[in-house]
Amino acid sequence: MSTGAGIDYSVWDHVYVSDDEDVVCPYVDTPSLFRMRHRVSSETCSSREVWSRIPGLVFTCRRDFARLERMAEFQQRGEDLESNLAECKRLLEEAQGQLKELEEGRKEKEEDEEREAELKKVQAQVRKLKKDEKSFEKMIKEHRWEEKKLPWNVDNISKEGFSKSVVNVKPVSTEETEEEKVEKHTAFVMKYAKEIKYFGMLRRWDDSQKYLSDNPHLVCDETANYLVVICIDFEIDEKHALMEQVAHQAIVMQFILDSARTLKVDPRGCFRQFFSKIKTADKPYQDAFDRELELLKERIRSCAQTRMESAMKELEEEERQKRLGPGGLDPVEVYESLPKDLQKSFDEKNIQMLQEAINKLDPEEGKYYLRMCIDSGLWVPDSEEDKDDDEDEDEEDAEKD
């Protein structure tokens, strides 16, 4: 049977589907057939392997057993042919390798009757294996052709295309470490910094919703955190209006994330609900939004102030390190600790006044202040004074000894 379109439906002409109405199992008599619908003794089914595989009570007719046996034999014959062909190919490959070795040995050495006999034997074996290989391939081709001509039945009329089982189990959530969070945040910001800054400058609700619809990957904690960082940078640069604008968008993102955590859903799927709600928000919801926005601004100002103070301290420390004299003392601190007369002499850069001020002091105290001035770099003695100081110190050490 065929149609004008060239589609062959002849395979449907011999579909064998048995309903087991002709001949039932010989071990069950017809009168007791309906009485034993839900019960079969173990002795009745022990000689039939199929009973152990088919659940429930199914009465199998004789022709079904014959069909199953023919199908098993046909399948086994095909498997045997495939196995024989594979073994033949393996033997042929070994024989061809042996033949190649013999031919190479005959070229290198003189002709030998024993070697020639072995060579002829292997050549004959190769010819026989090639013949067997062609024979097996022909038989396999015929077997496959016979398989296509077999009538369809309940066992081969269809095959399972795919099988998939899905178990709805909640995955075990593993908490990220601080290092992993930092790495994730850094990578995200490096990739989407431009898009986040653009979102931070949007003012209208509709624009923000459309931009997040086009870029749903931005709806995450990393975006909210980076928006706060941008706000702090603007506050440090004294760009207060820009800080307040970006802070507004940061609160928008934070409200979306809080809503997702409350509903236990992905934030990318609920940001539209937030915009629908905020556009028509009642007074309590709008007041809560404004209150959170003001709290964020206060925290940003406080954080910016802390960062500026810390930066100033670091800058002062760097300048202090640069000012340190040869003895490791800060000249500013040393100058402030000096008596008024010594400070005046340094202000006027008068060496004679300095010497007179030191002479008025107790010798030990004068030496202490002089040493501090030298270690801080306020006073740089010349070589002659260095010698005098060294001689004085040597004399004092000798007296002590």
Quick rundown:
By secondary structure, the chain is mainly alpha-helical.
Explained architecture:
This protein is mainly α. The protein is 67% helix and 1% strand. It has 14 helices and 2 strands; from the N terminus they run βαααβααααααααααα. The chain has helices at 42-45, 62-108, 113-149, 178-200, 205-214, 221-236, 240-263, 271-279, 283-323, 331-337, 340-348, 351-360, 363-376, 383-400, and strands at residues 15-16, 152-153. It has a two-stranded parallel sheet with strand order 1-2. α2 packs antiparallel against α3. The longest helix has 47 residues, at 62-108. The chain is elongated. 13% of the residues are buried. The model is unreliable at 19-60, 383-391 and 393-401 (pLDDT under 50).
